Known about the structure:
Blueprint: H1 3-13, H2 18-25, H3 29-36, H4 44-54, H5 58-62, H6 70-79, E1 80-83, H7 85-111, H8 114-125, H9 133-160, E2 171-175, H10 176-218, H11 222-256, E3 261-262
Parallel strand pairs: 1-2, 2-3
Amino acid sequence: MTFAEKIYQLRRQNGWSQEDLAHRLHVSRQSISKWENALSMPEGTKLSEIARLFQISLDELLSEDPIASPFASAYCSLQWDIAHLQEAEDFLKAVRKIAHSCGISFLFCMLSPFLLLYLVAQHQFVPDSGISEQMAAGLGSLSTSLIMLPAMSAPLIHILCFPYRSWLRRDILVAADVRQALMEDRQRRLRPFILRIVLAILLLLLTIPSFVMICIQYGERIETIYGVMLLLGGLGIALGILISCGIQIIAYQRLLSDHVHLTPYGTLR
Length: 269
């Protein structure tokens, strides 16, 4: 472990920002940044101050060996989760299940009142349809409930069974080679994500004006209720796509954000 890696680890173990450490050592934040990025080394007197501040010997500070202290290992075990490649891929697969489930769930929730709207339209605007107000309300409400219940339950079950909940609360240690593989995987998926998002936005831009035009042209007629159904379907598809893509993008950002990462040799950087 180099001096740059070591001072970064020590600062993180104490929960200090670069500004906090700079204030304690009476130097600028830029100096701390240069030390941690191996662009410069502190003076001899400042090295002694650093050793005293972190309560380690000067030899420990300057040696290439990692800092082996009970505090350091306990801190890592309490605050960080280590993400190996297989675990990171499993995490993303689990998130994709939740994302798809949430997107489909939102779509079905938006589609759930379709039968209710259809029966109400038939009862109100088609006199010889034979559908009474009670029948429209009863069957429509029942169908809405039967669709919404499983639609809302599916993502909830996936969330409750999510095996990486601790990764959402704590920092994640990601090895450099794993980080590179994740960045390449995100790059491969970026174009499909963008295409889906663009299609969802176009669908919104087509659906909402169409609904407004139907309302203006037909007023209180059966076509207006069909327009409401069109609006709900378009919103369900578009927002379901956006929700699904958004959750997956956030998952990649969670793994690739500026938390502590590991070098290929397992040392902190």
